[in-house]
Amino acid sequence: MRIGLPGLGSTVDDVVRRARRSEEEGFATLWFNSAAAGDPLLAIAIAGRATSRIELGTAVVQTYTTHPLLMASRAAAVVSAIGAPRFTLGVGPSHKPVIEGVLGLSYDHAGRHTDEYVQILAPLLRGEAVTFSGEEFRVSATPPALPDATEVPVLVAALAPRLLRAAGRHTAGTVLWMANATAIEEHIVPEIGKAAADAGRSSPRIVAGLPVAVHDDVREARETAGKLFAAYGTLPNYQRVLAKGRVAGPAEAAIVGNEDAVGTQIEALFAAGATDVWAAPFPVGDDRSASRARTNALLKDLART
User: Is the overall model pTM greater than 0.90, yes or no?
Assistant: First the structure.
């Protein structure tokens, strides 16, 4: 199974240690959010030079903060630093409270913005020149230098139909958060799969991310998940995909239970159409270290199957 973990770390040294350990433990990928070590692309470039096999990806970096031409150049620099095609660039528009409330930018056309963004970014990272004129962007550019004709795969944080179609048409796939097996099978796969097929592209990559805890008391685990991940249930983008999964909120979407139950739920994600799973372990109970260790032990075993 292709099992990944969050690329956690407040400093680059933390990220490097986690990357080395995760590679040794057999995990397929580390997925870094936009705040990792202050700059996830810098952290990935350094961690990539300290490792040799593990894929390093972003889940995700914000589109609004970086023009697609600059994003392409930064991604090319990461590949040059790593020296191997182990980098995957996940991008997404973030959420209205961040883009409008923090950055002071308009979020009125997030779907259109992201659709146009990846129509520029993905070809550039395939080594193609781009001439594009849309409502959000007007670009005429040559691609950045990529070593040995390396292609940088682009994934989109696509939860709603428009971005799933954009991901299928223009990119390597999607990287998800809070989409359970039901949402993947009934919503994600049909939308992105049809778009890719209609565009003559290969089957898209579908990277499913969910909170995970191995714990015998399911009720306690769900209560903890409800508290830790409550903020996601307040954001419209996640509310929609949770509804597609027929769950009320993050507590119900989380993967919890004993080893057998968690293993079965992770297998269900793959059966539903996920190509990868990135698991976000969270501790339950008084002994947080023991709780994390139990979850990590199972995930290591699954990663090696």
Answer: yes
